Amino acid sequence: MRLTANRIASILRRKGYRLTPQRYAILKAIAASEEHLTPDDLLEKARVATPQIGRITIYRTLDILGQLGLVCRVHAPDGCRGYMMTRPTGHHHHLVCTGCGRTLDFSDCPLEELEKRLEQDTGFITTGHLLEVYGTCADCRAAAGS
Amino acid sequence: MRLTANRIASILRRKGYRLTPQRYAILKAIAASEEHLTPDDLLEKARVATPQIGRITIYRTLDILGQLGLVCRVHAPDGCRGYMMTRPTGHHHHLVCTGCGRTLDFSDCPLEELEKRLEQDTGFITTGHLLEVYGTCADCRAAAGS
DNA sequence: TTGCATGCAAAGTTTTTGCATTAAG
DNA sequence: CTTAATGCAAAAACTTTGCATGCAA
Lengths: 146, 146
Prior knowledge:
- 2 copies of one chain form a homodimer.
- Chain A is of the alpha+beta class.
- Chain A has a single domain, classed as Arc Repressor Mutant, subunit A.
- Helices cover 44% and strands 23% of the residues of chain A.
- In chain A, the strands form 2 sheets. A 3-stranded mixed beta sheet of chain A has the order 4-3-5. In chain A, strands 1-2 form a two-stranded antiparallel sheet.
- In chain A, helix 1 packs across helix 2 (21-32), helix 2 (21-32) packs across helix 3 (39-49) and helix 3 (39-49) packs across helix 4 (55-67).
- The two termini of chain A are 32 Å apart.
- Strand 5 of chain A pairs antiparallel with strand 5 of chain B, so a sheet runs across the interface.
- Chain A binds a DNA duplex through residues 13, 16-20, 22-23, 38-40, 52-57, 59-60, 81.
């Protein structure tokens, strides 16, 4: 399960951040979405609940949430501007539908061996990785194959 | 081995593109670099050989090279604007030094099992993936651990 | 000679900065 | 009350478009 808006709200307060209506609107928008959202998408969605919210607040809030590890960027083939709520577990990767942007996440990945081999071959010390798997979700296939 | 500037030049001609001094300067800059380069980095480097080159030419050339699969974008933790020459083999991934940006590539990755499992679990049909491994190269470690 | 490629300038996007005002706690 | 957070406006950063000129083939 991904984090809920309320759960994140309490995390923010615990960290000393204020819970403004703007922030809450952003949290709800990103928590409710199955698709990764750009700052612009978020602005539009957050404005439904809080019409006067400014674009800058979106950026500032994403920045805070990103630093706390509560949201993360989705790297899709058509751009890297989307954000999703993360899972509480930390390490995870995305499965992104290239049709609709729906994004699922998963945490198991078989890359330890590979990283070890790369270290031996290159003299690098590996510190992490980014893995995004692309595909088409069942809904998009149904819509396309009509 | 990555592609050389001359090798790419002949590919371009074969495809019907003209080999202008500007394009050649860009090819040489990107082929000579161990690090991934942003359009701005490329502009600066290409201008050494061809001072009057315009920023737009960088974008247009990267676009062509990208469509032909000759360069590709590097997704680093601090941004996704860098480009590297690709290998002739096609499918590949990057090992990126987070210190200096040096980028190596490799083509083996053990993700078939994972993709199969994801398909079963989610109803997606997977079509590809992005994998970037991050780490620190020996030079950067030596410089930092002084 | 032909028409693809370039470069300028200008516009379109996306993101950041400065600062006075507002409101959460 | 305090001071973090907001929003406007303006700037900065990044990318694309339109068009006349230039040059590779």
